[in-house]
Amino acid sequence: MRPRRSRRCWRRATGSPSTAIVVALPVPAVAALDRAVHDRVLASALDDAGAAGVRGAALTPFLLDRMHRDTAGASLSANVALAVANAALAGRVAAAAAGPGAAAGGAAAVARGPVQ
After folding, report:
1. From CA 55, how far away is CA 62, in angstroms rounded?
2. pLDDT value, residue 4
3. Is there a contact between 75 and 31 (Cβ–Cβ < 8 Å)?
4. What's the pLDDT tens digit per position in 57-78?
5. What are the start-end ranges of the H helices in the chain?
6. In whole angstroms, what is the distance from residue 17 CA to residue 97 CA?
7. Which residues lie below 8 Å from residue 38, measured CB to CB, with a gap of 6+?
8. Contact 19, 13 (CB under 8 A)
9. CB under 8 Å, gap of 24 or more: what pairs does 38-42 form?
10. 3-class DSSP state for residue 91?
11. What angle (nearest 5°) sits at the alpha carbon of residue 83, between those of residues 1 and 77?
């Protein structure tokens, strides 16, 4: 999503800085796992977790470890690429939400919330 479009969505969704919107990105194509590999590894990991009684808070670390191991680290690379892309987008959205001239105000301008 483009930052200016995010700003318009934010304005429509809220007039309050205490309300949030979610802006999500897919994994960058250069780092994405092959869908068939992802689905196969995830299904196997979920089956093994169920058989081992892994549930609740222990499930996510179990799945991440299995995805990392069974994809030879490619899942970690994909997650890092996604985190970097999300951070870059978050910065652009924050700058767009702060509005023109906010750069002079720095973080304080962003902390004020959406531009009315």
Report:
1. 9
2. 63
3. no
4. 999 999 999 999 999 999 999 9
5. 3-13, 35-52, 59-70, 74-98, 107-111
6. 11
7. 71, 75
8. yes
9. 38/71, 38/75, 41/66, 41/67, 41/70, 41/71, 41/75, 42/67
10. helix
11. 120
